[in-house]
From TrEMBL:
Entry-linked PROSITE patterns: WD_REPEATS_2 (PS50082), WD_REPEATS_REGION (PS50294)
Protein known as: methylated diphthine methylhydrolase
WD repeat residue numbers: 210-243
Family: Belongs to the DPH7 family.
Record InterPro entries: Diphthine_MTase, WD40/YVTN_repeat-like_dom_sf, WD40_repeat_dom_sf, WD40_rpt
Length: 340
């Protein structure tokens, strides 16, 4: 439907969930500038803000762009935590940065605070606590040294609450359970999928599954519309569904090969049995999960118009354009908008 070229290697894309700003789309880039005899290696990036114009054929219009350090992940604040649209950025410089969507036409991203979460590692992922309030928010950040950090935000100020060692290698992802307050899932390059109870000591996880994934765990997504259903994606090219009714010992109910490393997963905002996957070398796939769970999962659509590694993907939150998907790929710097 539309395709634009970003100013660098594209790796993350997010539609704004706030109803009054549902036409806003953010996309992020990461570029490694190799070292030279004159200068050390640098990790540079950007966050671009687009307006999704819906008539009659949806298209993208660039309205703002911020240069920054290399970006691994971006995430808008949940819509139930305030009417203002706030975007969190996980940076390669170990800094968590916050932007506010401003302007009469939502056409400007303005940085209002930042925090060096880790001075010895990169920030790889970020997620907002879905149980937080508008006055006190909490985020979880994963790092390239395997550690996890909890950060609080109050009155537009960030504060590091605590950090702990979670994985032996890169902690690619950290996310909150959508139904169980205080439960965080993490996945790492050590092929481990873990759960952590934030109300208890973080010396050891509630569970640590080290056998199910054959390679690194890239993403974990708790289904916000379907209790006890969690999805994981791995470099081993498989999507796995988990039954989390026993939080201390979830078990995989299904796995499906998607032909490429499953870097990103997003549940559909309305249809609880559908999710979209970014499958690195194999493009993007929309997957349907049968509500009975014992029937299984299957790919219902593939999108292979990208010419490089499939990294970022998200669903539109606009009720008038729910079929819309935004996706981005790395080395060709491409951002696409398409119907599911």
């Amino acid at each position: 439907m539309d395709a634009v070229e970003l100013d660098g290697n594209a790796d993350a894309v997010e539609f704004c969930p706030v109803r009054s700003h549902s036409h806003a789309l953010a996309a992020a880039t990461y570029n490694l500038v190799e070292a030279t005899p004159e200068s050390p290696a640098r990790r540079l990036g950007s966050v671009s803000l687009f307006e999704v114009i819906a008539d009659p054929n949806p298209r993208l219009r660039l309205v703002d762009r911020k240069k920054t350090s290399g970006v691994f992940d971006i995430r808008w604040r949940p819509s139930n935590q305030g009417n203002d649209a706030v975007l969190a950025q996980a940076g390669a410089d170990g800094v968590l940065t916050m932007y506010a969507l401003q302007g009469s036409d939502s056409n400007s991203l303005e940085k209002f605070t930042e925090l060096e979460v880790c001075d010895s590692a990169m920030c790889l992922s970020v997620d907002w606590n879905p149980f937080a309030t508008s006055s006190q928010q909490e985020l979880v950040v994963s790092h390239s040294n395997g550690s996890i950090s909890l950060v609080s935000m109050s009155r537009e100020r960030l504060e590091l609450d605590r950090s702990w060692e979670a994985h032996g290698f890169e902690a690619w992802t950290a996310t909150y359970d959508a139904w169980i307050q205080g439960l965080v899932y993490t996945g790492g390059d050590d092929s481990q999928f873990c759960g952590w109870d934030l109300r208890a000591s973080l010396d050891s996880p509630v569970f640590r599954d080290a056998k199910s994934h054959e390679m690194g765990v890239c993403c974990v997504q708790s289904n916000p519309l379907w209790e006890n259903v969690v999805a994981t994606g791995s470099y081993d090219e498989r999507l796995r569904l988990w039954d989390a009714r026993m939080a201390h010992r979830p078990f995989a109910t299904h796995k499906i090969g998607l032909g490429g490393g499953v870097w990103r997963l997003k549940w559909h905002p309305v249809d609880k049995g559908t999710l979209v996957a970014a499958c690195m070398h194999s493009g993007f796939a929309i997957v349907a999960v049968d509500e009975q769970r014992d029937v299984g999962v299957g790919v219902v659509k593939e999108y292979k118009e990208h010419k490089s590694l499939a990294y970022g993907v998200d669903w539109s939150k606009n009720n008038e354009s729910l079929p819309l998907v935004a996706s981005c790929s790395f080395y060709d710097n491409a951002l696409h908008l398409w119907k599911s």
